[in-house]
Amino acid sequence: MIIDGHTIDSNHPPYVIAEISGNHGGDLGLALEIMTAAKEVGADAIKLQTYTADSLTIDHDGPGFVVDLPLWKNRKLYEIYQEAHTPWEWHEALFAKGRELGITVFSSPFDDAAIELLESLGAPAYKIASFENVDTNLIAMAAATSKPLVISTGMANLAEITDAVDAARANGCKDLALLHCVSAYPAPFQEAHLANMAELARRFDVPVGLSDHTLGIALPVAATALGAQLIEKHVTLRRSDGAIDSAFSLEPDELATMIAQIKDVHQAVGTVAFGPKPSEVGSVTYRRSLYAVADIAAGEPLTPDNVRSIRPGLGLPPKHLGEIINRRAARDIRRGDPLQWDMIGD
Asked: Cβ of 174: how many Cβ atoms within 10 Å?
């Protein structure tokens, strides 16, 4: 899979997506600062969310329209989305900033008007948010652009994920990735189920990754060890700003640490490779091998008293100890000599 020139596969470190979401706090300048900070610490992409409060819900306070989630408890959906949305008139400036910085910018659209706007700005890919993964009509519209598509699987059961994948593929999506996700804010570690990533890759034969809402960076690092090829994290300039998603977002220095660690872990996973590694070659000398630990005259038997398995490793391998005990020395052997076959007679 390729997004805006970036190859996403197991041969490359995970593709890091910095999600701004509502952490701009209604300030375009702050949004641009977050983008700059994410680029400076090594993020590969900035992700926006393209919606209005009216495109997501209605202004209503009836059952279900008032949120019962810890971070936003007792607030109306409409009010939350009004605060968190990225104004459409900002998008051109945000995409232009991405080009200036040399970082990819793409977005999660929430309706056809959002896709139309993003297409006009040359969006190189689309993300389907977890809350929208049951909206197969939206998925179909995004897939019809023929741009790479990333779908988060938060809350979705296997049948719903299958429906989403089928809708994407049936409508022209050739480059598809799935992000394992737990849509809780913050998400509890005990519900992470990172094993889902391997199952998603097996069932759907797509690159997989993690859209993470846990606190800290442990889960993205662990996910990398388990094969994640994309990592998405919410990013804020300062959690103390108190933006709507800041409580579970990373600050730039934390994002930098995460990126460094997932690169290290990706490199450490490597490939199947047994035997001495280049860094181990010097250590091979210091393994055990068979040595004379006392002087042995020619014709004298080799016994446990004069032959032992010790370090260093310049003699015969220890596995031959049983073969040589009670055989006789073919010539004089001095204490500290590594045993070789030509020293050993019948």
From this structure: 12
H or E, element range at 292? strand 289-292
Q: Distances from the Cα of 196 to the Cαs of 2, 17, 189, in angstroms?
A: 23, 20, 14
pLDDT in tens, 250-299: 999 999 999 999 999 999 999 999 999 999 999 999 999 999 999 999 99
The boundaries of the domain holding residue 19 are 10-269
Asked which of 218, 236, 269 is the last residue of a domain, the reply is 269
Binned at pLDDT 50, 70 and 90, residue 105 comes out as very high
Rg, the chain, Cα only: 30
* Stretch 228-237: mean pLDDT: 98
pLDDT digit string (tens) for 83-95? 889 999 999 999 9
1 part of a folded domain: no
Residue given tokens 């450490």 in the structure block = 268
Which residues are bridge partners to 308 per DSSP? Answer: 291
Please give the Cα distance from 225 to 221 (Å, whole number). Answer: 7
What 3-state DSSP class applies to 320? helix
193 torsion bin: left (phi>0), alpha (psi -120 to 50), beta (else): left
- Within this chain, do residues 209 and 94 fall inside the same structural domain, yes or no? yes
Number of domains in the chain: 2
Residue 242: per-residue pLDDT: 87
